[in-house]
Amino acid sequence: MGNDLVVVKTVPNGLDWNRYGFVAGKRMSKAVACNRVNRLLGEGARATPTITGWDVVLIARSQATTANYHELEACAAAVLPRAGILADKDGVEGIESARYEKARFGLNTFLSGRYFS
Questions:
Q1: Do the strands 19-23 and 54-60 form a parallel or antiparallel pair, or are they unpaired?
Q2: Mean pLDDT for the chain overall
Q3: pTM of this prediction?
Q4: Distance between CA 113 and CA 38 in Å, rounded?
Q5: Strand, helix or coil at 74?
């Protein structure tokens, strides 16, 4: 899932916290620009409340080198809900927890009713 500036990949990790990874390839630009994009994506991801138990990788596209903080934060905030890991406004897990259970225990176990009521 992604947009013009950022692509997001998620997988459940079974932990009580999230782990984030930020990727900006060498073909984007020089190291200074890549590190700047990684820092800005990190701040944008930190400002967005997500449910716990996920490994999240945000991959910057080449247009991200010319974007400012607010544009990158908005893009990160736009792709995380589509990934299904955005927390409710109160920080409480909502419907996204069902997606986590389905990914963690497998679709057949999830649909059999053991984790779905």
A1: parallel
A2: 75
A3: 0.68
A4: 41
A5: helix
Query: CB atoms < 10 A from the CB of 64, how many?
Result: 25
The packing angle between helices 31-47 and 69-83, to 10°, is 60
Structural domains of the chain, with CATH: 6-111 (3.30.230.10)
For tokens 């893009």, name the residue.
75
Q: What is the mean pLDDT of residues 48-72?
A: 87
Q: What is the DSSP letter of 63?
A: G
73-114 tens-digit pLDDT:
888 878 888 888 877 765 545 444 545 554 554 444 444 444
> What is the Cα–Cα distance from 30 to 105, expressed in whole angstroms?
42
Give residues with Cβ within 8 angstroms of 1, minimum separation 6. 7, 8, 79, 82, 83
Find the Cα–Cα–Cα–Cα dihedral 85, 86, 90, 91, rounded to 10°: 40
